[in-house]
Structure formats: C-alpha cells, structure tokens
Design goal:
Blueprint: H1 11-28, H2 30-33, E1 43-49, E2 59-63, E3 79-82, H3 102-111, E4 117-120, H4 124-132, H5 141-147, E5 153-154, H6 163-172, E6 179-182, E7 186-191, H7 194-215, H8 225-237
Parallel strand pairs: 5-6
Antiparallel strand pairs: 1-2, 1-4, 2-3, 4-7, 6-7
Helix pairs in contact: 3-6, 4-7, 5-7, 5-8
The protein binds 5-O-phosphono-D-xylulose.
C-alpha cells in the first residue's frame, strides 16, 4: 500500500473518488444479474482523473477487493489504487487486497488514456470462444453497431503482472472493438466509464451466445465490410438520446 491517503486529496477530488466508489460498487451487481460471472470471478473498475496540478497524483482508479462476494460489495469496501496499481490508504482494511486483475486494469489506464472503465468476466459463451482461441466473426448487425467488426482474440497471458494488460492494449489499441477475448481466459471490455464497459461486457456475451447458437445450424456469413462500416457509423453517432445538459 502506498503512503498516500484519501485525506491528501482536495474536497472535489475526494468527492469524485467517493462517487466512483458508489458507482463501481453498484455496477458489480450487474455481473451476476446478467449471468456474466460465477462466484467472485469478475471485476469492474473506473478511473478518476484530476486535470489540475494540485492533487498528489494525476489519477486513481476504483476496483473491487479480490474474492469478496458480490452481495458484500459496498462503496466503503471498494479499493482505490494509483494508476500503477498500488492501493492507497483508502480507509479499507490494510488486509483488503484489490482484485487479482488490478495490474491488467492499471496497464490499460496507463496506456489507453481515453479509457475510463474496464471490466473482466468469465461469461460462459464469450469464454467458450476464448477457450478455442477463435475470434467472434461479425455476422450480426449488433456486432457491427457495438464492436465495429469481429471481437478479436488476445494473446495467452498469465495473471499477476502486466502481461494481460499488455495483451489487451496490443489487441484493442488499433481496433474498433471494445472487447477482447484473452486466449483461453475470457473477455475484457473497455469503455468511456465503468457503465460503458459493463454494457460492452453484456453485449459481448449476448453476441457470443447468439453466434454460437447460429453455428449449430451452419456457418453464418460475415456482413460485408462496407455495411459493417455504415452500421457502426450510424450507431456511434445517431443511436440513443442526445445529452442536452
Ligand atoms: O481469472 C481469474 C481467476 O481465474 C480472475 O479474473 C479472478 O477471477 C478475479 O477475481 P477477483 O480477484 O477480481 O475477485
């Protein structure tokens, strides 16, 4: 744990961290609710950036503690880490370790500045594609909309250091996809914030399941590239509500 304490941040930064802890705790409930995880095997994080120079670090991220039941997750036991993955003194117990995927989340935040949220699950259909080391081909309009093409496979990597994070960044940095299936491991998704990354995790599992079911009756055909491009452009720019605030 670093010697940095929550008290070292300004009131506005502390409030932003507190709001993120609340958000991230609540979003973890979406993982079991959408059948994306077994037991405690999945995690959500969100980055909090401090644009001014007055804070002790440029940013932190909030992530769940490792191996704690989703029912027991609250804002108060969300762990706060600096962007190198070190837990700060966040008023949680000194023995409460962050998720075992913390180094992977930290690497993504350090190397993909536009990413504000990261999610990892072992959702069963997406993980079955990962187990085969097979990308999910873009055979559904929802895939073109949300992922802009195939959902790629990332390299095989061991948990515990930067390896998984490096694999995620290498695979997604030049891709439109917000999901990567780490080889023989499972999906990691990214978003502008934690909610956006959770949405990508839910939709990744949905398309993994649907394409799997379709393949029981034959090989579905990939959508033509120009149609994928048109679908992606429309969905990214027109779909949903405009934020007028
Ligand atoms: O891949 C694995 C375990 O097989 C990890 O992703 C863990 O399942 C994450 O659990 P937490 O440490 O986040 O509770």
């Amino acid at each position: 744990m670093s010697t940095l304490h929550l008290n070292n941040f300004s009131d506005s930064a502390s409030q932003a961290i507190a709001a993120s802890r609340k958000t991230v705790a609540a979003l973890h409930a979406e993982l079991p609710r959408n059948d994306l995880v077994a037991w405690t095997a999945g995690n959500v994080s969100q980055k909090v950036e401090f644009p001014g120079a007055e804070e002790p670090v440029a940013g932190v991220f909030v992530i769940k503690p490792s191996g704690v039941s989703y029912d027991e997750l609250t804002a108060a036991n969300m762990v706060v880490c600096t962007l190198d993955g070190t837990k700060i003194d966040d008023d949680t117990s000194i023995g409460l370790s962050p998720s075992s995927d913390t180094a992977a989340h930290a690497y993504v935040y350090r190397n993909m500045p536009a990413v504000g949220g990261v999610v990892h699950t072992h959702s069963p259909y997406a993980t079955s594609w990962a187990a085969r080391g097979e990308p999910i081909p873009c055979v559904l309009t929802m895939m073109a909309d949300e992922f802009g093409g195939d959902i790629p496979i990332g390299p095989f990597a061991l948990i515990g250091d930067d390896s998984i994070g490096r694999g995620i960044v290498e695979t997604l940095q030049d891709s439109r996809s917000r999901a990567v299936l780490m080889d023989r491991h499972g999906p990691f998704t990214i978003g502008t914030d934690a909610k956006d990354a959770v949405k990508a995790a839910v939709l990744c599992e949905e398309v993994a399941r649907t394409v799997h079911l379709a393949r029981a009756y034959g090989e579905p055909e990939r959508i033509a590239q120009h149609q994928i491009d048109a679908l992606y452009a429309r969905y990214q720019n027109v779909y949903g509500q405009k934020d007028n605030t």
